[in-house]
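Table 4 source record.
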Amino acid sequence: MDSHVIDYKIHGDDMQVVSIELDPNETVIAEAGSMNWMDRGISFEAKMGDGTEPDSGIMGKLFSVGKRVLTGESIFLTHFTNIESSKKEVAFAAPYPGSIIAVNLKDLNGEILCQKDAFLCAAMGTNVSIAFNKRIGAGFFGGEGFILQKLTGNGLAFLHAGGTVVKKELNNQTLMIDTGCIVAFTSGLDYSIERAGNLKSMIFGGEGLFLATVKGTGTVYLQSLPFSRMADRILQNAPKNGGKSKGEGSILGGLGRMIDGDNFK
């Protein structure tokens, strides 16, 4: 199924939104709850599946969407269709601060693998499914786990990532990456896990026990701030048992609160 040809614009720097312009009868599919705004004249409907297999029947659709449950996503995708005779716009935002990546699957041999929560939206005709890590080490220690999302088609798809996104082109090269910092990579690359240096470095180096290794020829998208890392930092600094949060000035934090009257009530 050929993908619909859509126009788009990415707004912002750190908390981005992608707006997509739809011609009459064009459709974009998106994760449930990601829509930010849309023009009147766009019809939306939650459907099981991405619409690439309309004749698969109810059992085929249940089997297809059932695989999405393994990624922790909803079994439904929302289909947004322009039902008017003029161009209309719909916009989507990521669920946490970061960047939006536009990838043309036609330029990537029709397929890309991404972390299980990276998919945001895509042109109708894009198949959204899953792929399993073949290496047990990558599944246990690779940050993404055993299950990756697989996007196939010949049109535009949009991924979201935490922090800044860096695109790396590998030409028979090897790249060692902090686990969890991989957003997506083309299917021709080999993905595995290696131990992070010697025992001392693994324990005291602060880089974790394992590093992800990507080698071969293809494209890799990296993120500077995985959501899991951001969430861990927030939890570390959150108030414990109803207490106060850590002061920004460390030693002066408590003194600062006394001066501004926080402890004089």
